[in-house]
Amino acid sequence: MRQYIIAANDEERPFTRDQRRWVYASAKKQNNYFGFGTDNDLEYTAGYPVIKHRTFARAVPPSSPGTSREIQVPCAKVIGAARGRPGAFRPNSVVNISAMSFGSLSANAIEALNRGAALADCLHNTGEGGISRYHRHGGELIFQIGTAYFGCRDADGRFDLAKLKDVVAGAPVRALEIKLSQGAKPTLGGLLPAPKVSAEIAAARGIPEGRDCVSPSRHAEFSDVDSLLDWVELLAAETGLPVGIKSAVGDLEFWCDLADLMRDTGRGVDFISIDGGEGGTGAAPLIFTDTVSLPFQLGFARTYRIFAERGLHDDVVFIGAGKLGLPDNAIVGFALGCDLVYVAREAMLAIGCIQALKCHTDTCPTGVATQNAWLARGLVPDVKAERVANYVKTLRRDLVKVAEACGVEHPGLISTEDVDILDTRTDSTPLHEVYGYTPDMGLPSEADRKEIVRLMTDVEPQGHSAPPSSSAVG
């Protein structure tokens, strides 16, 4: 009754009915338009973002039946290029599937996401639970290394470099991501109870079957920023892959120390994934879900500014996570300096999640977040793969549409001057003033901007008007 009778279209959390409807319709290639104007109370909502379109600009949106076709939207930066990593690469998609482990999600869900990533030509983050056979259906991977070193540990639970190299050699791994914390449970470890530790999960994680699986709250391979960077460089040297970190944002001292050491020593991470404190897919104590770690925009902006003030922002690919699978949130993320976005819960919605809020109970009714075989059998990977691919492609297309409305060819070229934040019904503040950015912050380097414009205009022709009349002014 609360969902269908009492709540308004824009009231529910974590995702409103409007937001879920947009994801579902996009995933099914149905009509995802909305009629009769917005029902968001934007006139009286402080903090509401407004994207400012341009009347005349360099980029011209196409106006033709073909504008709904699929659009390739590669990253504006090359991950690992700044440090000469042998495996440096330009991600083919600015939208990628976020870290969700096999164990927290069902086998069928993981397979659907990986098949969908292959169809959408985007990256699939494994989560910290290792690489299972369900991750091997064509989607390229970011291998996440958590505190328990699942998939790259020895019999005693210690990190094993040889096993990591075997994993990298035996799967389509494009980058390594060291997980420091996540928005749902910053500073906490994790527990997968014994009944969930099946033979397949045990094999993927490198742990005993049928026993509680405990993730520590801290890494054993490093204990401060200096030793973290040593480990990053070791992993990069041994695998040749770009290496990054994922973290929620709390104390800024860590980020200042990291940026200072990167500037002063030449060691560094190739990418940084910032997770918002809005909750995410992980089950966690309510106090951590609700109040520990900064929400995405605030945490990301403070972190990005630390690197930009030290002249390091061009050397790092910034990835945003935290409800950025919705076009409006993603656009603000790109304006603040995101080069890529991760989608997690939105991808779950695309493969059937109904926001039942049962992720922590093993009774997910749609077979997404459960290890119950009877429930999971209802999720058919081939069907759901198409849906998650459709959703990713639709989100990319909408991001480009908005970018062109702002007069640029790519969402990474949207600046903080293109977004205002409403203060009251009669006043607003430019995004760069809200977060203390200078005008050059949030954008790729000039060289990267030129290259991404070239790439975008090579594959996506610009629009044009009807032929001008003889009396048109030059």
TrEMBL record:
<dbReference type="Pfam" id="PF01645">
    <property type="entry name" value="Glu_synthase"/>
</dbReference>
<dbReference type="InterPro" id="IPR024188">
    <property type="entry name" value="GltB"/>
</dbReference>
<dbReference type="InterPro" id="IPR013785">
    <property type="entry name" value="Aldolase_TIM"/>
</dbReference>
<dbReference type="InterPro" id="IPR002932">
    <property type="entry name" value="Glu_synthdom"/>
</dbReference>
<comment type="similarity">
    <text>Belongs to the glutamate synthase family.</text>
</comment>
<protein>
    <submittedName>
        <fullName>Ferredoxin-dependent glutamate synthase</fullName>
    </submittedName>
</protein>
<feature type="domain" description="Glutamate synthase">
    <location>
        <begin position="93"/>
        <end position="408"/>
    </location>
</feature>
